[in-house]
Amino acid sequence: MLDVGKWPIFSLCSEEELQLIRQACVFGSAGNEVLYTTVNDEIFVLGTNCSGCLGLGDVQSTIEPRRLDSLSGKKIACLSYGSGPHIVLATTEGEVFTWGHNAYSQLGNGTTNHGLVPCHISTNLSNKQVTEVACGSYHSLVLTSDGEVFAWGYNNSGQVGSGSTANQPIPRRVTGCLQNKVVVNIACGQMCSMAVVNTGEVYVWGYNGNGQLGLGSSGNQPTPCRIAALQGIRVQRVACGYAHTLVLTDEGQVYAWGANSYGQLGIGNKSNQSYPAPIFMEKDSSCCRQPSPCPTPDFPCAARCSRIIEIAACHSAHTSAAKTQGGHVYMWGQCRGQSVILPHLTHFSGTDDVFACFATPAVSWRLLSVEPDDHLTVAESLKREFDNPNTADLKFLVDGKYIYAHKVLLKIRCEHFRSSLGDNEDDIVEMSEFSYPVYRAFLEYLYTDSISLSPEEAVGLLDLATFYRENRLKKLCQQTIKQGICEENAIALLSAAVKYDAQDLEEFCFRFCINHLTVVTQTSGFAEMDHDLLKNFISKASRVGAFKN
Protein backbone atom coordinates (compact mmCIF):
# COMPACT_ATOMS: atom_id res chain seq x y z
CA MET A 1 0.00 0.00 0.00
CA LEU A 2 1.31 3.46 -0.92
CA ASP A 3 1.36 5.81 2.04
CA VAL A 4 -0.44 8.87 0.66
CA GLY A 5 -0.04 10.41 4.10
CA LYS A 6 3.49 11.42 3.08
CA TRP A 7 1.90 14.23 1.03
CA PRO A 8 1.01 17.13 3.37
CA ILE A 9 -2.26 17.86 1.51
CA PHE A 10 -3.66 14.49 2.66
CA SER A 11 -3.46 15.59 6.29
CA LEU A 12 -6.79 17.31 5.55
CA CYS A 13 -8.44 13.89 5.05
CA SER A 14 -9.69 11.69 7.85
CA GLU A 15 -8.28 8.21 8.46
CA GLU A 16 -11.55 6.73 7.17
CA GLU A 17 -11.30 8.76 3.94
CA LEU A 18 -7.67 7.73 3.42
CA GLN A 19 -8.56 4.05 3.64
CA LEU A 20 -11.05 4.44 0.79
CA ILE A 21 -8.56 5.98 -1.67
CA ARG A 22 -7.68 3.87 -4.71
CA GLN A 23 -5.97 6.41 -7.00
CA ALA A 24 -4.51 9.84 -6.27
CA CYS A 25 -2.61 12.71 -7.87
CA VAL A 26 -1.14 15.67 -5.98
CA PHE A 27 -0.47 18.71 -8.18
CA GLY A 28 -0.29 22.51 -8.24
CA SER A 29 2.48 25.10 -7.91
CA ALA A 30 2.83 24.32 -4.20
CA GLY A 31 1.41 20.79 -4.09
CA ASN A 32 -1.82 22.24 -2.71
CA GLU A 33 -4.33 20.45 -4.94
CA VAL A 34 -5.27 16.79 -5.10
CA LEU A 35 -7.63 14.57 -7.09
CA TYR A 36 -8.38 11.07 -5.89
CA THR A 37 -10.74 8.19 -6.60
CA THR A 38 -12.29 5.84 -4.06
CA VAL A 39 -13.02 2.13 -4.01
CA ASN A 40 -16.56 3.09 -5.08
CA ASP A 41 -15.23 4.76 -8.25
CA GLU A 42 -16.18 8.21 -6.99
CA ILE A 43 -13.82 11.12 -7.77
CA PHE A 44 -13.01 13.74 -5.13
CA VAL A 45 -10.92 16.92 -5.25
CA LEU A 46 -9.42 19.13 -2.58
CA GLY A 47 -7.24 22.25 -2.34
CA THR A 48 -6.71 25.85 -3.42
CA ASN A 49 -8.37 25.48 -6.85
CA CYS A 50 -6.09 27.81 -8.85
CA SER A 51 -7.64 28.64 -12.25
CA GLY A 52 -10.54 26.30 -11.46
CA CYS A 53 -8.21 23.28 -11.65
CA LEU A 54 -10.43 21.22 -9.33
CA GLY A 55 -13.14 21.16 -12.01
CA LEU A 56 -15.94 22.06 -9.60
CA GLY A 57 -17.39 24.90 -11.70
CA ASP A 58 -15.92 27.69 -9.57
CA VAL A 59 -12.57 29.02 -8.33
CA GLN A 60 -13.30 28.62 -4.62
CA SER A 61 -10.75 26.73 -2.56
CA THR A 62 -11.96 23.82 -0.47
CA ILE A 63 -10.41 22.46 2.70
CA GLU A 64 -12.75 19.46 2.64
CA PRO A 65 -12.98 16.85 -0.15
CA ARG A 66 -15.70 17.61 -2.71
CA ARG A 67 -17.05 15.05 -5.15
CA LEU A 68 -16.45 15.76 -8.85
CA ASP A 69 -19.90 14.80 -10.07
CA SER A 70 -19.28 15.86 -13.68
CA LEU A 71 -17.08 12.77 -14.11
CA SER A 72 -19.51 10.42 -12.37
CA GLY A 73 -19.27 6.90 -13.77
CA LYS A 74 -15.88 7.50 -15.39
CA LYS A 75 -12.87 5.40 -14.45
CA ILE A 76 -9.46 7.06 -14.67
CA ALA A 77 -6.73 5.35 -16.68
CA CYS A 78 -4.10 8.11 -16.53
CA LEU A 79 -3.76 11.76 -15.63
CA SER A 80 -1.25 14.59 -16.03
CA TYR A 81 -1.14 18.27 -15.13
CA GLY A 82 0.53 21.51 -16.15
CA SER A 83 1.84 24.58 -14.31
CA GLY A 84 -1.34 26.73 -14.48
CA PRO A 85 -2.38 24.18 -13.48
CA HIS A 86 -4.39 22.46 -16.17
CA ILE A 87 -5.50 18.83 -16.06
CA VAL A 88 -5.56 16.24 -18.85
CA LEU A 89 -7.28 12.97 -17.96
CA ALA A 90 -7.91 9.80 -19.96
CA THR A 91 -10.57 7.29 -18.97
CA THR A 92 -10.34 3.52 -19.21
CA GLU A 93 -12.52 3.82 -22.32
CA GLY A 94 -9.93 6.06 -24.00
CA GLU A 95 -11.82 9.35 -23.70
CA VAL A 96 -9.99 12.61 -22.89
CA PHE A 97 -11.20 15.29 -20.48
CA THR A 98 -9.44 18.58 -19.69
CA TRP A 99 -10.01 21.53 -17.36
CA GLY A 100 -8.21 24.32 -15.50
CA HIS A 101 -5.80 26.99 -16.78
CA ASN A 102 -6.18 27.68 -20.52
CA ALA A 103 -4.41 30.96 -21.40
CA TYR A 104 -2.41 29.12 -24.08
CA SER A 105 -5.14 26.75 -25.36
CA GLN A 106 -3.61 23.88 -23.40
CA LEU A 107 -7.08 22.40 -22.80
CA GLY A 108 -7.49 21.71 -26.52
CA ASN A 109 -11.07 22.96 -26.68
CA GLY A 110 -10.40 25.72 -29.22
CA THR A 111 -10.57 28.59 -26.72
CA THR A 112 -8.33 30.43 -24.27
CA ASN A 113 -10.94 30.57 -21.52
CA HIS A 114 -10.14 28.74 -18.28
CA GLY A 115 -12.13 25.52 -17.97
CA LEU A 116 -14.00 25.37 -14.69
CA VAL A 117 -15.49 21.93 -15.38
CA PRO A 118 -14.12 18.89 -17.24
CA CYS A 119 -14.57 19.17 -21.02
CA HIS A 120 -14.63 16.13 -23.29
CA ILE A 121 -12.01 16.68 -26.02
CA SER A 122 -13.06 14.90 -29.19
CA THR A 123 -11.75 17.05 -32.04
CA ASN A 124 -9.47 14.78 -34.13
CA LEU A 125 -9.73 12.19 -31.34
CA SER A 126 -13.32 10.96 -31.82
CA ASN A 127 -12.29 7.60 -33.25
CA LYS A 128 -9.18 7.23 -31.15
CA GLN A 129 -8.56 5.48 -27.84
CA VAL A 130 -6.12 7.45 -25.72
CA THR A 131 -3.85 5.31 -23.54
CA GLU A 132 -1.36 7.83 -22.14
CA VAL A 133 -1.30 11.58 -21.43
CA ALA A 134 1.49 14.04 -20.63
CA CYS A 135 1.58 17.75 -19.84
CA GLY A 136 4.30 20.35 -20.05
CA SER A 137 3.89 23.65 -18.27
CA TYR A 138 1.33 24.90 -20.81
CA HIS A 139 1.07 22.24 -23.53
CA SER A 140 -0.44 18.77 -23.72
CA LEU A 141 0.29 15.44 -25.42
CA VAL A 142 -1.76 12.27 -25.72
CA LEU A 143 -0.84 8.84 -27.07
CA THR A 144 -3.41 6.65 -28.80
CA SER A 145 -3.72 2.87 -28.85
CA ASP A 146 -2.48 2.77 -32.45
CA GLY A 147 0.75 4.58 -31.56
CA GLU A 148 -0.14 8.10 -32.71
CA VAL A 149 0.70 11.28 -30.78
CA PHE A 150 -1.53 14.36 -30.67
CA ALA A 151 -0.45 17.70 -29.21
CA TRP A 152 -1.92 21.13 -28.45
CA GLY A 153 -1.38 24.29 -26.41
CA TYR A 154 1.58 26.65 -25.92
CA ASN A 155 4.06 26.42 -28.79
CA ASN A 156 6.55 29.27 -28.39
CA SER A 157 9.48 26.85 -28.74
CA GLY A 158 7.97 24.25 -31.06
CA GLN A 159 6.86 21.93 -28.24
CA VAL A 160 3.66 21.04 -30.12
CA GLY A 161 5.77 19.72 -33.01
CA SER A 162 3.79 21.43 -35.77
CA GLY A 163 6.79 23.06 -37.45
CA SER A 164 5.77 26.58 -36.37
CA THR A 165 5.69 28.53 -33.10
CA ALA A 166 1.98 29.38 -33.23
CA ASN A 167 -0.11 28.07 -30.35
CA GLN A 168 -2.24 25.04 -31.19
CA PRO A 169 -5.88 25.38 -29.97
CA ILE A 170 -7.08 21.84 -30.75
CA PRO A 171 -5.45 18.38 -30.88
CA ARG A 172 -3.17 18.00 -33.89
CA ARG A 173 -1.36 14.81 -34.80
CA VAL A 174 2.41 15.06 -34.50
CA THR A 175 3.81 13.80 -37.79
CA GLY A 176 7.12 14.50 -39.53
CA CYS A 177 9.58 11.81 -38.46
CA LEU A 178 6.81 10.14 -36.44
CA GLN A 179 4.50 9.73 -39.44
CA ASN A 180 5.07 6.00 -39.88
CA LYS A 181 6.30 5.21 -36.38
CA VAL A 182 4.46 3.43 -33.56
CA VAL A 183 4.92 5.42 -30.37
CA VAL A 184 4.80 3.52 -27.07
CA ASN A 185 5.64 6.20 -24.47
CA ILE A 186 5.46 10.00 -24.21
CA ALA A 187 6.68 12.66 -21.76
CA CYS A 188 6.87 16.44 -21.47
CA GLY A 189 9.36 18.80 -19.88
CA GLN A 190 8.48 22.40 -19.17
CA MET A 191 8.51 23.34 -22.86
CA CYS A 192 9.69 20.20 -24.68
CA SER A 193 8.20 16.89 -25.75
CA MET A 194 9.52 13.32 -26.06
CA ALA A 195 8.31 10.10 -27.67
CA VAL A 196 9.69 6.56 -27.55
CA VAL A 197 8.82 4.35 -30.52
CA ASN A 198 8.49 0.57 -30.55
CA THR A 199 11.96 0.13 -32.04
CA GLY A 200 13.51 1.79 -28.99
CA GLU A 201 14.36 5.09 -30.68
CA VAL A 202 13.65 8.43 -28.99
CA TYR A 203 12.23 11.45 -30.84
CA VAL A 204 12.30 14.94 -29.33
CA TRP A 205 11.04 18.43 -30.11
CA GLY A 206 10.53 21.84 -28.49
CA TYR A 207 12.71 24.02 -26.26
CA ASN A 208 16.38 23.05 -26.06
CA GLY A 209 18.10 25.94 -24.27
CA ASN A 210 19.61 23.60 -21.67
CA GLY A 211 20.33 20.71 -24.04
CA GLN A 212 17.28 18.80 -22.77
CA LEU A 213 16.59 17.37 -26.24
CA GLY A 214 19.90 15.47 -26.21
CA LEU A 215 20.82 16.52 -29.75
CA GLY A 216 24.25 17.96 -28.89
CA SER A 217 23.07 21.54 -29.42
CA SER A 218 20.97 24.21 -27.71
CA GLY A 219 18.74 25.19 -30.62
CA ASN A 220 14.98 24.66 -30.42
CA GLN A 221 13.44 21.90 -32.52
CA PRO A 222 9.98 22.64 -34.05
CA THR A 223 9.42 19.09 -35.35
CA PRO A 224 10.33 15.61 -34.01
CA CYS A 225 14.00 14.68 -34.36
CA ARG A 226 15.63 11.34 -33.49
CA ILE A 227 18.38 11.35 -30.86
CA ALA A 228 21.26 10.01 -32.93
CA ALA A 229 23.52 9.65 -29.88
CA LEU A 230 21.31 6.76 -28.69
CA GLN A 231 21.94 4.74 -31.86
CA GLY A 232 22.11 1.04 -30.99
CA ILE A 233 20.49 1.59 -27.57
CA ARG A 234 16.92 0.41 -27.15
CA VAL A 235 14.97 2.76 -24.89
CA GLN A 236 11.84 1.60 -23.05
CA ARG A 237 10.76 4.68 -21.08
CA VAL A 238 11.41 8.41 -20.98
CA ALA A 239 10.81 10.84 -18.10
CA CYS A 240 11.20 14.62 -18.13
CA GLY A 241 12.01 17.04 -15.34
CA TYR A 242 11.65 20.80 -15.66
CA ALA A 243 14.59 21.01 -18.09
CA HIS A 244 16.28 17.62 -17.93
CA THR A 245 15.54 14.20 -19.39
CA LEU A 246 15.97 10.59 -18.24
CA VAL A 247 15.60 7.43 -20.33
CA LEU A 248 15.57 3.77 -19.29
CA THR A 249 16.94 1.13 -21.67
CA ASP A 250 15.89 -2.47 -22.07
CA GLU A 251 19.10 -3.49 -20.30
CA GLY A 252 18.18 -1.51 -17.17
CA GLN A 253 20.61 1.34 -17.83
CA VAL A 254 19.67 5.01 -17.32
CA TYR A 255 20.90 7.93 -19.43
CA ALA A 256 20.38 11.60 -18.63
CA TRP A 257 20.89 14.97 -20.30
CA GLY A 258 19.83 18.61 -20.11
CA ALA A 259 19.90 21.11 -17.25
CA ASN A 260 22.06 20.12 -14.30
CA SER A 261 22.31 23.11 -11.96
CA TYR A 262 20.97 20.98 -9.08
CA GLY A 263 22.79 17.77 -10.04
CA GLN A 264 19.56 16.35 -11.46
CA LEU A 265 21.47 14.36 -14.09
CA GLY A 266 23.19 12.33 -11.36
CA ILE A 267 26.59 12.32 -13.07
CA GLY A 268 28.65 13.83 -10.27
CA ASN A 269 28.74 17.48 -11.36
CA LYS A 270 26.48 20.46 -12.09
CA SER A 271 27.34 20.99 -15.75
CA ASN A 272 24.58 20.87 -18.35
CA GLN A 273 24.79 18.02 -20.85
CA SER A 274 23.51 18.21 -24.41
CA TYR A 275 24.28 14.54 -25.14
CA PRO A 276 22.98 11.46 -23.25
CA ALA A 277 25.27 10.52 -20.34
CA PRO A 278 25.02 7.20 -18.44
CA ILE A 279 24.09 7.21 -14.76
CA PHE A 280 25.59 4.59 -12.47
CA MET A 281 23.95 3.42 -9.25
CA GLU A 282 26.19 2.10 -6.50
CA LYS A 283 26.40 -1.69 -6.46
CA ASP A 284 26.07 -2.33 -2.74
CA SER A 285 24.79 -5.81 -1.98
CA SER A 286 25.07 -5.23 1.78
CA CYS A 287 21.77 -3.34 1.73
CA CYS A 288 19.91 -5.92 -0.33
CA ARG A 289 16.20 -6.08 0.50
CA GLN A 290 15.58 -9.49 -1.00
CA PRO A 291 14.11 -12.01 1.46
CA SER A 292 16.44 -14.34 3.27
CA PRO A 293 17.49 -16.79 2.02
CA CYS A 294 18.06 -14.99 -1.29
CA PRO A 295 15.65 -16.32 -3.99
CA THR A 296 18.34 -16.01 -6.69
CA PRO A 297 21.64 -17.04 -5.03
CA ASP A 298 23.33 -17.91 -8.32
CA PHE A 299 22.71 -14.47 -9.82
CA PRO A 300 25.10 -11.74 -8.60
CA CYS A 301 23.18 -9.66 -6.06
CA ALA A 302 24.91 -6.39 -6.92
CA ALA A 303 24.02 -6.78 -10.60
CA ARG A 304 20.39 -7.53 -9.79
CA CYS A 305 20.08 -4.74 -7.25
CA SER A 306 21.58 -2.09 -9.56
CA ARG A 307 19.50 -2.90 -12.65
CA ILE A 308 16.96 -0.10 -13.01
CA ILE A 309 13.30 -0.97 -13.65
CA GLU A 310 11.71 2.47 -13.10
CA ILE A 311 12.68 6.10 -13.59
CA ALA A 312 10.84 9.15 -12.28
CA ALA A 313 10.88 12.88 -13.00
CA CYS A 314 8.29 15.67 -13.16
CA HIS A 315 8.16 18.80 -15.33
CA SER A 316 7.57 20.98 -12.28
CA ALA A 317 10.68 19.80 -10.37
CA HIS A 318 14.45 19.36 -10.68
CA THR A 319 14.35 16.03 -8.85
CA SER A 320 15.13 12.58 -10.27
CA ALA A 321 14.49 9.11 -8.88
CA ALA A 322 14.91 5.47 -9.89
CA LYS A 323 14.07 2.02 -8.56
CA THR A 324 16.19 -1.08 -9.06
CA GLN A 325 15.17 -4.65 -9.68
CA GLY A 326 16.40 -5.42 -6.15
CA GLY A 327 13.93 -2.93 -4.66
CA HIS A 328 16.32 -0.06 -3.94
CA VAL A 329 15.11 3.50 -4.51
CA TYR A 330 17.60 6.25 -5.39
CA MET A 331 17.13 10.01 -5.63
CA TRP A 332 19.25 12.90 -6.89
CA GLY A 333 18.95 16.52 -8.00
CA GLN A 334 17.10 19.13 -5.94
CA CYS A 335 16.15 17.34 -2.72
CA ARG A 336 14.64 19.57 -0.06
CA GLY A 337 16.96 22.47 -0.94
CA GLN A 338 20.08 20.35 -1.31
CA SER A 339 21.81 19.61 -4.60
CA VAL A 340 22.49 15.87 -4.71
CA ILE A 341 24.82 15.29 -7.68
CA LEU A 342 25.00 11.47 -7.52
CA PRO A 343 22.22 8.89 -7.00
CA HIS A 344 21.59 8.59 -3.26
CA LEU A 345 20.22 5.36 -1.81
CA THR A 346 17.05 6.00 0.22
CA HIS A 347 15.00 3.84 2.56
CA PHE A 348 11.84 4.37 0.53
CA SER A 349 9.99 1.49 -1.07
CA GLY A 350 8.87 3.49 -4.13
CA THR A 351 9.85 6.49 -6.24
CA ASP A 352 6.57 8.21 -5.38
CA ASP A 353 7.80 8.70 -1.82
CA VAL A 354 10.82 10.64 -3.11
CA PHE A 355 8.55 13.27 -4.63
CA ALA A 356 6.28 13.37 -1.59
CA CYS A 357 9.17 13.99 0.82
CA PHE A 358 11.96 15.67 -1.16
CA ALA A 359 10.62 17.33 -4.34
CA THR A 360 9.87 21.05 -4.51
CA PRO A 361 6.91 21.29 -4.80
CA ALA A 362 5.75 18.03 -3.22
CA VAL A 363 3.70 16.71 -6.14
CA SER A 364 3.03 13.34 -7.77
CA TRP A 365 5.10 12.43 -10.82
CA ARG A 366 2.35 10.02 -11.94
CA LEU A 367 -1.15 8.91 -10.98
CA LEU A 368 -0.76 6.88 -7.80
CA SER A 369 -2.49 3.54 -7.42
CA VAL A 370 -3.41 2.72 -3.85
CA GLU A 371 -4.69 -0.66 -2.72
CA PRO A 372 -6.36 -0.96 0.71
CA ASP A 373 -4.48 -3.37 2.93
CA ASP A 374 -7.50 -4.68 4.82
CA HIS A 375 -9.15 -6.36 1.85
CA LEU A 376 -7.93 -9.39 -0.04
CA THR A 377 -8.83 -9.58 -3.70
CA VAL A 378 -9.51 -12.94 -5.35
CA ALA A 379 -6.01 -12.86 -6.82
CA GLU A 380 -4.44 -12.14 -3.43
CA SER A 381 -6.44 -14.94 -1.82
CA LEU A 382 -5.23 -17.40 -4.43
CA LYS A 383 -1.62 -16.33 -3.88
CA ARG A 384 -1.96 -17.14 -0.19
CA GLU A 385 -3.24 -20.64 -0.86
CA PHE A 386 -0.33 -21.74 -3.03
CA ASP A 387 1.66 -24.58 -1.41
CA ASN A 388 -0.72 -24.63 1.55
CA PRO A 389 -1.00 -28.21 2.89
CA ASN A 390 -4.06 -27.30 4.96
CA THR A 391 -6.31 -26.64 1.96
CA ALA A 392 -4.61 -28.59 -0.85
CA ASP A 393 -6.06 -31.78 -2.36
CA LEU A 394 -3.03 -32.61 -4.51
CA LYS A 395 0.69 -33.07 -3.86
CA PHE A 396 3.51 -33.03 -6.41
CA LEU A 397 6.62 -34.97 -5.45
CA VAL A 398 9.65 -33.35 -7.10
CA ASP A 399 13.26 -34.12 -6.13
CA GLY A 400 12.00 -35.67 -2.90
CA LYS A 401 10.03 -32.55 -1.89
CA TYR A 402 6.28 -31.93 -1.85
CA ILE A 403 4.49 -29.01 -3.51
CA TYR A 404 0.86 -28.57 -2.45
CA ALA A 405 -1.81 -27.52 -4.96
CA HIS A 406 -5.54 -27.54 -5.72
CA LYS A 407 -6.89 -29.67 -8.57
CA VAL A 408 -9.74 -27.38 -9.54
CA LEU A 409 -7.48 -24.34 -9.86
CA LEU A 410 -4.92 -26.22 -11.93
CA LYS A 411 -7.65 -27.43 -14.29
CA ILE A 412 -9.03 -23.91 -14.66
CA ARG A 413 -5.63 -22.33 -15.28
CA CYS A 414 -3.81 -24.88 -17.45
CA GLU A 415 -4.82 -26.98 -20.45
CA HIS A 416 -2.20 -29.58 -19.59
CA PHE A 417 -3.78 -30.25 -16.19
CA ARG A 418 -7.29 -30.26 -17.63
CA SER A 419 -6.36 -33.29 -19.67
CA SER A 420 -3.83 -34.97 -17.37
CA LEU A 421 -5.80 -34.74 -14.12
CA GLY A 422 -9.24 -35.35 -15.64
CA ASP A 423 -11.07 -37.75 -13.36
CA ASN A 424 -7.80 -38.83 -11.73
CA GLU A 425 -8.45 -39.31 -8.02
CA ASP A 426 -4.78 -39.72 -7.02
CA ASP A 427 -3.61 -37.16 -4.53
CA ILE A 428 0.13 -37.52 -5.27
CA VAL A 429 1.81 -36.90 -8.64
CA GLU A 430 5.49 -37.72 -9.08
CA MET A 431 7.45 -35.41 -11.40
CA SER A 432 10.93 -36.24 -12.68
CA GLU A 433 11.14 -34.25 -15.94
CA PHE A 434 11.83 -30.90 -14.24
CA SER A 435 13.72 -29.71 -11.17
CA TYR A 436 12.02 -28.69 -7.94
CA PRO A 437 12.71 -24.91 -8.29
CA VAL A 438 11.43 -24.90 -11.88
CA TYR A 439 8.27 -26.92 -11.23
CA ARG A 440 7.49 -25.00 -8.06
CA ALA A 441 7.84 -21.73 -10.00
CA PHE A 442 5.47 -23.08 -12.65
CA LEU A 443 2.79 -24.02 -10.13
CA GLU A 444 3.23 -20.73 -8.32
CA TYR A 445 2.75 -18.89 -11.62
CA LEU A 446 -0.65 -20.57 -12.00
CA TYR A 447 -1.64 -19.00 -8.67
CA THR A 448 0.01 -15.59 -9.04
CA ASP A 449 0.50 -14.80 -12.75
CA SER A 450 4.11 -13.92 -11.95
CA ILE A 451 7.49 -15.59 -11.57
CA SER A 452 10.49 -14.97 -9.31
CA LEU A 453 13.54 -16.80 -10.58
CA SER A 454 17.14 -16.17 -11.49
CA PRO A 455 17.69 -15.91 -15.27
CA GLU A 456 19.40 -19.31 -15.26
CA GLU A 457 16.41 -20.98 -13.58
CA ALA A 458 14.08 -19.06 -15.90
CA VAL A 459 15.73 -20.95 -18.76
CA GLY A 460 14.48 -24.21 -17.23
CA LEU A 461 11.03 -22.71 -16.82
CA LEU A 462 11.17 -21.57 -20.44
CA ASP A 463 11.72 -25.23 -21.36
CA LEU A 464 8.66 -26.22 -19.32
CA ALA A 465 6.55 -23.40 -20.78
CA THR A 466 7.48 -24.50 -24.28
CA PHE A 467 6.66 -28.14 -23.47
CA TYR A 468 3.26 -27.24 -21.93
CA ARG A 469 2.53 -24.61 -24.59
CA GLU A 470 2.08 -21.87 -21.99
CA ASN A 471 2.77 -18.89 -24.24
CA ARG A 472 2.27 -16.15 -21.63
CA LEU A 473 4.61 -17.93 -19.23
CA LYS A 474 7.10 -18.22 -22.05
CA LYS A 475 7.01 -14.43 -22.49
CA LEU A 476 7.48 -13.87 -18.75
CA CYS A 477 10.50 -16.17 -18.78
CA GLN A 478 12.00 -14.25 -21.67
CA GLN A 479 11.39 -10.97 -19.81
CA THR A 480 13.08 -12.33 -16.66
CA ILE A 481 16.05 -13.49 -18.69
CA LYS A 482 16.36 -10.07 -20.33
CA GLN A 483 16.30 -8.31 -16.97
CA GLY A 484 18.91 -10.67 -15.53
CA ILE A 485 21.37 -10.87 -18.38
CA CYS A 486 24.99 -9.97 -17.63
CA GLU A 487 28.34 -10.58 -19.30
CA GLU A 488 28.92 -13.85 -17.43
CA ASN A 489 25.65 -15.54 -18.40
CA ALA A 490 24.98 -13.89 -21.77
CA ILE A 491 26.25 -16.81 -23.89
CA ALA A 492 24.34 -19.39 -21.85
CA LEU A 493 21.15 -17.39 -22.22
CA LEU A 494 21.76 -16.90 -25.95
CA SER A 495 22.18 -20.66 -26.31
CA ALA A 496 18.91 -21.27 -24.45
CA ALA A 497 17.07 -18.77 -26.64
CA VAL A 498 18.27 -20.59 -29.75
CA LYS A 499 17.37 -23.99 -28.29
CA TYR A 500 13.80 -22.98 -27.44
CA ASP A 501 13.24 -20.96 -30.61
CA ALA A 502 12.64 -17.72 -28.66
CA GLN A 503 13.53 -15.39 -31.52
CA ASP A 504 12.95 -12.08 -29.75
CA LEU A 505 15.04 -13.24 -26.80
CA GLU A 506 17.73 -14.55 -29.13
CA GLU A 507 18.00 -11.13 -30.80
CA PHE A 508 18.14 -9.39 -27.41
CA CYS A 509 20.90 -11.70 -26.12
CA PHE A 510 22.83 -11.31 -29.36
CA ARG A 511 22.68 -7.50 -29.18
CA PHE A 512 23.78 -7.63 -25.52
CA CYS A 513 26.78 -9.79 -26.47
CA ILE A 514 27.73 -7.40 -29.27
CA ASN A 515 27.40 -4.35 -27.00
CA HIS A 516 29.63 -6.04 -24.38
CA LEU A 517 31.75 -8.06 -26.80
CA THR A 518 35.17 -7.53 -25.17
CA VAL A 519 34.05 -8.81 -21.77
CA VAL A 520 31.75 -11.54 -23.11
CA THR A 521 34.50 -13.11 -25.22
CA GLN A 522 36.66 -13.46 -22.09
CA THR A 523 34.09 -15.48 -20.15
CA SER A 524 34.11 -19.23 -19.60
CA GLY A 525 30.74 -19.41 -21.31
CA PHE A 526 32.22 -18.10 -24.55
CA ALA A 527 35.18 -20.49 -24.28
CA GLU A 528 32.82 -23.45 -23.87
CA MET A 529 30.39 -22.30 -26.56
CA ASP A 530 28.85 -24.95 -28.81
CA HIS A 531 30.74 -25.11 -32.13
CA ASP A 532 27.71 -24.51 -34.37
CA LEU A 533 26.45 -21.68 -32.16
CA LEU A 534 29.91 -20.09 -32.15
CA LYS A 535 30.11 -20.32 -35.91
CA ASN A 536 26.70 -18.68 -36.33
CA PHE A 537 27.52 -16.03 -33.72
CA ILE A 538 30.77 -15.00 -35.43
CA SER A 539 29.06 -14.92 -38.82
CA LYS A 540 26.18 -12.76 -37.58
CA ALA A 541 28.51 -10.51 -35.58
CA SER A 542 30.67 -9.86 -38.64
CA ARG A 543 27.58 -8.92 -40.65
CA VAL A 544 26.71 -6.18 -38.14
CA GLY A 545 30.28 -4.85 -38.15
CA ALA A 546 31.31 -6.05 -34.69
CA PHE A 547 34.89 -6.77 -35.77
CA LYS A 548 35.62 -3.52 -37.57
CA ASN A 549 38.51 -1.42 -36.27
From TrEMBL:
Coiled-coil stretches: none
Keywords, comma-separated and alphabetical: Repeat
CDD domains: BACK_RCBTB2 (cd18529), BTB_POZ_RCBTB2_CHC1L (cd18354)
Ranges where the BTB domain occurs: 392-455
Pfam families cross-referenced by the UniProt entry: BTB, WD40_RLD
InterPro entries, per database record: BTB/POZ_dom, RCC1-like_dom, RCC1/BLIP-II, Reg_chr_condens, Signaling_Regulatory_Domain, SKP1/BTB/POZ_sf
RCC repeats: 94-146, 147-199, 200-251, 252-325
Protein name: RCC1 and BTB domain-containing protein 2 isoform X3
Gene: RCBTB2
